């Protein structure tokens, strides 16, 4: 198993993990600030946390209620 981890191209994967984490934090902070969303906030929190990129992107496209 350790040999398999040594073969992983971390130079490619590490930036993707960092971008995913930043996108998730930005989405959660924005969700905390906004008053009205399309759907319950707890659902958006769960989607953002458990579906990685898709949940955060879906929140910014669909979840925010436009004023």
UniProtKB/TrEMBL annotation:
- Work out whether the entry's keyword set contains Flavoprotein: no
Q: Where are the transmembrane segments?
A: 12-31, 43-62
Instruction: Describe the location of the Cardiolipin synthase N-terminal domain by residue ranges.
Output: 22-64
Highest rank taxon of the organism: Bacteria
Is this entry keyworded Protease?
Answer: no
Please state where this protein is localized.
Cell membrane
Which keywords describe this protein according to UniProt?
A: Cell membrane, Membrane, Transmembrane, Transmembrane helix
The annotated topology with respect to the bilayer is: Multi-pass membrane protein
The protein's name is PLDc_N domain-containing protein
The scientific name of the source species is Lysinibacillus agricola
Q: Output the lineage of the source organism.
A: Bacteria, Bacillati, Bacillota, Bacilli, Bacillales
């Amino acid at each position: 198993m350790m040999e398999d981890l040594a073969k992983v191209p971390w130079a490619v994967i590490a930036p993707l993990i960092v971008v995913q984490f930043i996108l998730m934090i930005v989405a959660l902070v924005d969700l905390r600030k906004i008053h009205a969303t399309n759907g319950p906030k707890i659902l958006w929190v769960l989607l953002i946390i458990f579906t990685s990129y898709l949940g955060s992107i879906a929140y910014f496209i669909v979840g925010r209620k436009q004023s």
